[in-house]
Amino acid sequence: MEQLQQGSDVFFLLMGAILVFAMHGGFAFLEVGTVRHFSQVNALVKIMVDFAISTVAYFFIGFWISYGITFLVSASALTGGAEGFGPQGLTLVKFFFLCTFAAAIPAIVSGGIAERARFVPQCAATALLVGFAYPLIEGTVWNNNFGLQDTLFESMLGANFHDFAGSIVVHAFGGWAALGAILRLGPRRGRYDHPGVSGTPPSSIPWLAMGSWMLCIGWFGFNVMSAQSVAAISGLVAMNSLMAMAGGILAALIVGRNDPGFVHNGALAGLVAVCAGSDVMHPVGSLVTGAIAGFIFVQFFQLATQRWKIDDVLGVWPLHGLCGLWGGLACGIFGTEALGGIGGVTFASQFVGSLLGSAYGLVAGLIVYTLVDLIFGFRMSDEEQRRGADLTIHNISANPELDVRTGRI
Amino acid sequence: MEQLQQGSDVFFLLMGAILVFAMHGGFAFLEVGTVRHFSQVNALVKIMVDFAISTVAYFFIGFWISYGITFLVSASALTGGAEGFGPQGLTLVKFFFLCTFAAAIPAIVSGGIAERARFVPQCAATALLVGFAYPLIEGTVWNNNFGLQDTLFESMLGANFHDFAGSIVVHAFGGWAALGAILRLGPRRGRYDHPGVSGTPPSSIPWLAMGSWMLCIGWFGFNVMSAQSVAAISGLVAMNSLMAMAGGILAALIVGRNDPGFVHNGALAGLVAVCAGSDVMHPVGSLVTGAIAGFIFVQFFQLATQRWKIDDVLGVWPLHGLCGLWGGLACGIFGTEALGGIGGVTFASQFVGSLLGSAYGLVAGLIVYTLVDLIFGFRMSDEEQRRGADLTIHNISANPELDVRTGRI
Amino acid sequence: MEQLQQGSDVFFLLMGAILVFAMHGGFAFLEVGTVRHFSQVNALVKIMVDFAISTVAYFFIGFWISYGITFLVSASALTGGAEGFGPQGLTLVKFFFLCTFAAAIPAIVSGGIAERARFVPQCAATALLVGFAYPLIEGTVWNNNFGLQDTLFESMLGANFHDFAGSIVVHAFGGWAALGAILRLGPRRGRYDHPGVSGTPPSSIPWLAMGSWMLCIGWFGFNVMSAQSVAAISGLVAMNSLMAMAGGILAALIVGRNDPGFVHNGALAGLVAVCAGSDVMHPVGSLVTGAIAGFIFVQFFQLATQRWKIDDVLGVWPLHGLCGLWGGLACGIFGTEALGGIGGVTFASQFVGSLLGSAYGLVAGLIVYTLVDLIFGFRMSDEEQRRGADLTIHNISANPELDVRTGRI
C-alpha cells in the first residue's frame, strides 16, 4: 500500500516532468516559426543546448541552493537509503520535474534575444541564471528560504505569497530577466531603421503554431503536477488552466483581429497568468484572468516592439513578464473567497510578491547579461547578423538541400 | 487509501484529457497539410479558436444538458464539498476530459468545410453544436437521458446501445454533421470545373503526417481513458485500438496503392471504427474492423469527392461519418461472444443506435449550418476564395517572410 | 486495493506504450528532415507501415517466441480470466508496450537504408525481423529463454547480463542489423562519385529537430516504464536518462562544432547509451556515459560515412549500434558499486553480452536483407533513385501543390 502510494507519486511527477520537458520543444518551434528563416537553426540549437546546460547547472549547484540537496552520494543512497531522499527515487524525479521549470528561464529569454545574440555568452548566461539567480527566488518562494514567507508575507501582509505553479517564480522572473537581456543587447541590425514598418515577418506560421500546441499540451503538466503528489492533485487546477487558455485565445483573437500569431500566443498568455492561482481561483475567475492576459499580450507586444522600440522578437516580456505579473496579482483577486475562490491569499501579499519577483528578474537579467557582455561580447556584428545566426554560428541553414541547390549558400 | 484511489482517478482522467487535447493539435496539422498553402493559417486558427469556443459553450451549457451539472458554485464546493462534485476536483477533470470530446465535433467539421467557409458563422456553428446539438446525443447514450437506453434499446432490442469511446456519439455524429455543412456550403470555387481532375493537391505531406501522428498518439487516451477510472481500466481497449490502427494502415496502403494521404488517414479510420467496441471485441476482431474501415475510407473518399462531387476536403465524412457508423455496427458483430468478444451487445441495438446517431448528426448539421448561413452568410465569395482564406480572414499567409520577399503578398 | 494496484500498473504501462509509440513519429520526422526532399514521403510511409506490420508480426508470432503467450483465446480470457493473463488486460498492455520496442527495430534500420530501398522487400524484412529475429534476443535476455542468463552469464561471468531498457536488445541489435542491411544494399546512386564531398545536405533541420524532440520525450517512457509496474518504478532511471541526454547534447555540440544535426542526434546518443544501466548507474556516471556516446556518434558518423564509405543516411549504426554497444559496456563500468552504482552487474557479463548481442544483430541483418534481396530485389534502380523514392513508390512528392504549380512533377 505504502509502496503503491510512493510509486504513484514517482509516476505522477514523472509524467509532469515529461510534459514540461515537451514544452521545451514548444519553446524551440515557437521561436523557429517566429524568427526569420536564417535564424531557425540557431533557435533549435539554443533551446536544446540551454536545456542541457540548465540540467548540469541545476544538478550541481541550483538544486542545492533551492532545496539544500546535493546528489554526490551513492546511487543506492539516492534511491531512498539516505536521509533527505524519498523512496524509489522520489527526490530524483522531483529534481527532474523542477529542472524542467528551471530550464524554462533561458528558454523564455531565448525568444527575446533571437537573431543577434552570440552563442557562447548566451550559454554562459544560462548557467548563471539556472545555477544561481533562479534558485534564489525559487527557494525563497517555494522552500521558505531566508524565512521571507514568514517574516514578510505571513506576518506583515496577511498570508504567504502564493504562486502555485510559477506565474512569478518562473514566468515573471524569466520575462523580466529577458527584458534586461534585450535592453543590454539592443535591437537587431536595421530593425528600427525604417519608421512605420511594423516588424519582421515571421518565417512560418505552422511552426509557430506547433510550438504553441506543444507548450499548451505540456502546460497541463506544468500546472497540475505542481501539486507534487497524487494525494494533493486537484482537478480544479486542470479546469482553471483550460478556462484561462480559452479566455486568452478568445481575447487575443478579438483584440488581435484574427492574427494567427496573437491567437497562438494568446493561449500561452492565459496559461502564464493562471499558474499562480490555478489551485485557488474559480473557473470563471480563470476565464476572466486568461482573457485579460490575452488582451495584455496583444496590446503590450505592439506597444513594446513598435512604440517603445524594444526589439523583443517573440514578445517574451509581455507574454511571460507582464502576463506573469498579472497572474500573481490575479491570484490575489480571484483567489479570494469573495470572488468564488478558495481563499487563503491576500492581495497585499500578491501585490508585493509579484512586484518583488518581477523587479528581481529585471535586475538579475541586467546583471547576468551585462556580465557576459563584458566578458565575451554579447552581440553579433552587423555583418554576422546580415549573414544570419545559422550560417554564422552553425555553418548550415535550415533547409540545406534547397539552399545548396539554389546556390543560396 | 481512499485518497490515493481518488487522486489516481483524477490523474488518470487528466492524462486522458491531455492526450485528447493533443489530438486537437493533430486535427489542426492534418488540415494544414491537406489544404492548399493559402488556407494553412485559417486551418490553424480555426481549430484553436473552435477549441476555446467549445470550452466556453460546454462549460456554461453543454455539460449541463448532458449531465445536469453546472459550475456556478464556489471553488471550494467544486473541488468536493458540494453535492454532485467528486473529491479533489474529480468532476472538474471529468469535464476537461469530456470537453475535449465535445470540441472534436467542430474539429471534425472543420476539415470538411475548409478553404471556403467564412470565419464568424463557423464560430457560431461551433457554439451551437457543442452547446446544444452534441450534448443531446452525448447525454442520451452516455447518461441515459430521456430513458432511451432503457425503453428503446434494453427493452426492445436486447441490450443497451454500446458506444464505449464514441464511434457514433463523437465520430459518426461529427462526420454526418460535417456532411450537412458541406452540402449547405457547396464545393470550393472551381473545384469541379475541369472534369477528370481528381482533386486539389495537398500542400504538405509532412504536416499531414504530423497531424495523423498526433491524432494516433492521443487516441489511446481517447479510448482507454473512456473507462473514466483506474478501477475500470482495461488493457483490452489499448490492444484493440492498436490492432485496429494497424488494420487500417495496411488496408489503406493496399487499397490506396502506397498513397501517403491514404496510409496516414487509414490509421485514423481504424481508430474511429474501434472506439465503440474497443472494450468488448477480440483483438483479431479489431484488426478486421480496422482493415474494413481503411477500405471504406479509401473507397468512399474517392467516390464522394470525385464521383458524387461532394467537396469534402479532408474526407471527414468517409473518415468519421462512415467509419464511425461501421464501428457502431462492428461492435454488434465482433463484440458478441460468438466471435470471441465479451458480449453484452446485440446487433439490433447497434444497428438502430448507429443509424439513429448518424441520422441525427446529419439533421443537426443541416439545421445548424443552414441557420448560420441564413444569419451571417456562410460562404466566402469567389474573389475571397481566390485570394485564399489566409489573406482574406487573417491578413497574413503561412510563410510571411518568404511571401514578402518574393512579392507574393 | 488490489484492483487499484492492478489498474495502476495497466495505466503505468499504457503511458509507457503511448510514449514509445510517439517515438515512432520521432523516427519518421528525424528521417524526413535528414533525407533529401524527394524521399520525405517514403520516410513517412515506411515508418507508419513498418509499425503496422510489426504489430501484426509480433502479435501472431514474435510475442509467442519471446514470452510463450498467444492471444487466440476469447476476449474474456484475455482480460484476466485465463491462465497467463493478468487482470484488467495487464498482459495486453504489456504486449502493447513491448510491441513498440519491437517495432523500433525496423524504424532504426529505416534511417540507414533510406532513399534507395524498394518498398515491398523492406516490408518483408520488417516482418522477419520483428516476427523472428528480434524475439530470439528479446526472450533470451528478458525472459531467460534457453537458460543463457543462468548457464552462461550468472554461472560463468558472475551476474546476469543486465540490459534494463534495451541498449543492446533494442538499439545495438537494431543498429547492427541496419549495418547488415546497408552493406547488402550498397550506397545511394552517386553518393561516393565525387571525392571530397562530405555528404548529401539534409532537407530540413526543423523536421530533423522535431523528430529528435519526439524521440527524446518518448524516451523517458521507454526507460522508466521498463520497470513494468508502479511498485518497481525508480526515479533514478528518469534522472539518469536526463543526465545522459544532457551529456550527449553537450559532447556533440563541442565535438560537432555547433552542428544542429549532431546536437539533436547527440541527445539520442546519450539516451541510447543509458538504457542498459539506467537503473543501476549514478547520475554522474550517466552524464559521463552520455557524453562519451555523443563523442562516439559524431566521430564514427564521420568515419563511417566519409572514410569507410558506408552510406548510412541517418547514421543509425553509430547512433544505435555503437552507442548501444557502449551502453552495454558502460553499465558494467558505472553500474558497479565502486563507481557509485547500485551493483549487481559485472563487466565480464556486460562485455560478453554486448558483443554477442551486436554480433547477432549484424548476422540477423545480413541474413534477413540478403534473403529479401534474393527474393524481391532490394535496391531501387539508378533511374528510380534519380526520380526519388517518393515519385517512384508513392506517385506523389512531399509538397504536391508546390510541385504541381512549379511544374516539377
From TrEMBL, chains A, B, C:
Subcellular localization: Membrane
Source organism of the structure: Candidatus Filomicrobium marinum
The keyword Transmembrane is assigned to this record: yes
GO CC terms in record: membrane
Ammonium transporter AmtB-like domain mapped to chain residues: 12-396
Keywords: Membrane, Transmembrane, Transmembrane helix
One Gene Ontology term of the molecular function aspect: ammonium channel activity
Topology of the protein relative to the lipid bilayer: Multi-pass membrane protein
Gene3D superfamilies xref list: Ammonium transporter AmtB like domains (1.10.3430.10)
Main location: membrane
Annotated TM spans: 12-30, 51-75, 95-114, 119-137, 164-185, 205-225, 231-255, 262-281, 287-304, 316-335, 355-378
PANTHER family the record matches: AMMONIUM TRANSPORTER (PTHR11730), AMMONIUM TRANSPORTER SLL0108-RELATED (PTHR11730:SF89)
Name the UniProt record assigns to this protein: Ammonium transporter AmtB-like domain-containing protein
One GO-annotated biological process of the protein: ammonium homeostasis
